[in-house]
Amino acid sequence: SSSFPAAAAAFVDGGGGGAWRPSLVLRNDHDCAVKSVSLRRAVLGERAGDVTLVSASADGEIRVRVATTRGAAATTATTTVGVTDADAEWRPLARLRGHDGSVKAVHAVGARCDRILSASYDRSARLWTLPSTSSSKSRGEPAVAAPPRLFRGHGDYVVDAAFANDDTFGEIIITTSSDGFIRVWDAETQTLLTSV
C-alpha cells in the first residue's frame, strides 16, 4: 500500500503566497492509485449536516467515509466544505465493489448523500445506494451496500456521469464516453432515454 494521501478535504495558504499545505490528510487505504474523489454535505435525512467523502481507485473499488462536524447546521447546502481533523471524525461507511475496471469518476449525489454514482473503464456507470449510517456504527466497519443499478451501453469507457432530478423525466443519469456519445438514462428503470 502506498503512503500517498488518498484525499485532502481542505487546503490552507502557507502564508505569503508560499506553498499550500493540507489541513486534513486521510491516509491511503486503497490498494492502488486513487483516480477520483468527491466531497459533499448532506442537507436532508439521517446524514443532514454530515460530510460524505468518496474515493475511487484503479482497482475498481470505491470507499465512502462520513464525517459528523461539531455544530454543523443541518440546512447548510455547500459543496465547499472546510472540515479539518480538529472538528470531525471520519468514519468508514461503505466499500463498494462491482466494477471490472478502474473507476474514472465518482460522485456523492442527492440531498441526502445516500447514493454514489460511478463511471468506469469497464464501459458502465453504476448508481449505488448506501447503507444507513447506523449500520456501519454498530459494526465499527464499512457496511455492505445493496447491488447497484447498472447503466451499460457505451462502446468505450465511461469518462464521467452526472445525476439530475428533472421535472419532466424524474431522476436521470447522464453518461459521457470515449465512444463520442452522451447517453441519458432513467435512474429508476435503467432505461436509455436518448443518445446524442
Describe this structure in words.
The chain is 4% helix and 47% strand. It is mostly beta strands and 196 residues long. β13 (158-166) and β14 form a beta hairpin. Mean pLDDT is 79; it is low at 1-14 and 72-81.
Descriptive terms for the model:
16 strands, 1 helix, 196 residues, four-stranded antiparallel sheet, mainly beta, disordered N terminus, 4% helix
State the helix count: 1
- Using only C-alpha atoms, the radius of gyration works out to 17 Å
- Portion of residues within helices: under 10%
What is the end-to-end distance?
Answer: 41 Å
Largest sheet: 4 strands, antiparallel
Structure, briefly:
It is built from one helix and 16 strands. The protein is mainly beta and 196 residues long. A hairpin with a 5-residue loop joins strand 9 and strand 10 (115-120).
How would the blueprint of this fold be written?
Layout: E1 5-7, E2 11-13, E3 20-22, E4 26-27, E5 34-41, E6 51-57, E7 62-69, E8 88-96, E9 103-109, E10 115-120, E11 124-129, H1 133-139, E12 149-152, E13 158-166, E14 170-177, E15 182-186, E16 192-195
Antiparallel strand pairs: 1-4, 2-3, 5-6, 6-7, 7-8, 9-10, 10-11, 11-12, 13-14, 14-15, 15-16
